């Protein structure tokens, strides 16, 4: 207890000795305001009456306010359908990516077979190839499999993650060999070794990969734009530009659509903020 109190006093004294602490806080608050201001402006514009115009930017924040834009947009557009498509595709893509990358990383890390190192080098080389360079052959494959304009065509081509395999392989390499050998001697098969011993230890790495896979799938524009033809299958990154193009001279309706699309993401960030920060720090340390 005495040692803990000494550490607390030392931290307090260290804070007091920092002559730039107030300046750092002021700069941090200023940067936070700069980043959050566009979101606040979007929300205020979205509750303005339809067709509202102004010559003074400050009038966007003044009354009148109305929520009829949200009701009209939800009832008369496909915004909720696009929101569901994005959520469904991102969730299934994340689950399949975690499952496949974990199995591949475990095989490369713990199993013995020929050309293991060569396969791992191919995963490393995969990080050097930009995704745009694979779009044409990927489109041809999906087209020949008759998966264009379908959920399968949206999800399956996106579940390959060389970065996820590399991160998990590095993590699995760090599992103590004593645990692996003891489980093997006790008759534990590779599959039981994977899901009962190694996988539970990899929760931080799995969480980090899952977060970034979900965000990447949610924000993906190019592949859904090329592989989807029906408006009912659009995801938000594709549907919103199409919707906004119909209101090129207006502000309120496009901002309302963007607000509806942004609110679930903002709420999810507030709920999973700690996990997201841990995931970023984890990938940074492992990299």
Automatic annotation (TrEMBL):
A Gene Ontology cellular-component term: plasma membrane
Keyword Transmembrane: yes
BP terms from Gene Ontology: transmembrane transport
Membrane topology of the entry: Multi-pass membrane protein
UniProt superkingdom: Bacteria
Keyword Zinc: no
Cellular compartments annotated: Cell membrane
Family: Belongs to the binding-protein-dependent transport system permease family.
Name this polypeptide is given: Carbohydrate ABC transporter membrane protein 2 (CUT1 family)
Organism: Saliterribacillus persicus
């Amino acid at each position: 207890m005495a040692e803990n109190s000494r550490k607390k006093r030392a931290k307090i004294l260290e804070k007091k000795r920092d002559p730039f602490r107030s300046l750092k806080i002021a700069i941090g608050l200023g940067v936070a305001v700069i980043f959050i201001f566009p979101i606040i402006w979007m929300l205020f514009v979205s509750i303005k009456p339809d067709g509202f115009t102004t010559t003074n930017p400050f009038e966007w924040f003044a009354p009148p306010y109305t929520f009829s834009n949200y009701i009209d947009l939800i009832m008369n557009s496909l915004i909720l359908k696009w929101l569901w498509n994005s959520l469904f595709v991102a969730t299934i893509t994340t689950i399949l990516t975690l499952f496949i990358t974990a199995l591949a990383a475990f095989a490369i890390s713990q199993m013995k077979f020929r050309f293991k190192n060569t396969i791992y080098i191919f995963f490393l080389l995969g990080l050097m190839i930009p995704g745009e360079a694979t779009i044409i052959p990927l489109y041809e494959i999906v087209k020949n499999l008759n998966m264009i304009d379908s959920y399968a065509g949206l999800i399956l081509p996106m579940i390959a993650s060389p970065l996820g395999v590399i991160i998990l392989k590095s993590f699995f390499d760090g599992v103590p060999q004593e645990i692996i050998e003891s489980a093997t001697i006790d008759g534990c098969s590779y599959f039981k070794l994977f899901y009962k011993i190694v996988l539970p230890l990899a929760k931080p790495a799995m969480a980090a990969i899952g977060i970034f896979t979900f965000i990447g799938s949610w924000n993906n524009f190019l592949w859904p734009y090329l592989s989807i033809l029906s408006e009912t299958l659009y995801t938000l990154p594709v549907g919103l530009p199409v919707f906004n193009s119909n209101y090129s001279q207006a502000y309120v309706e496009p901002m309302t659509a963007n607000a509806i699309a942004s609110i679930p993401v903002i709420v999810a960030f507030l709920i999973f903020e700690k996990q997201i920060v841990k995931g970023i720090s984890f990938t940074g340390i492992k990299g």
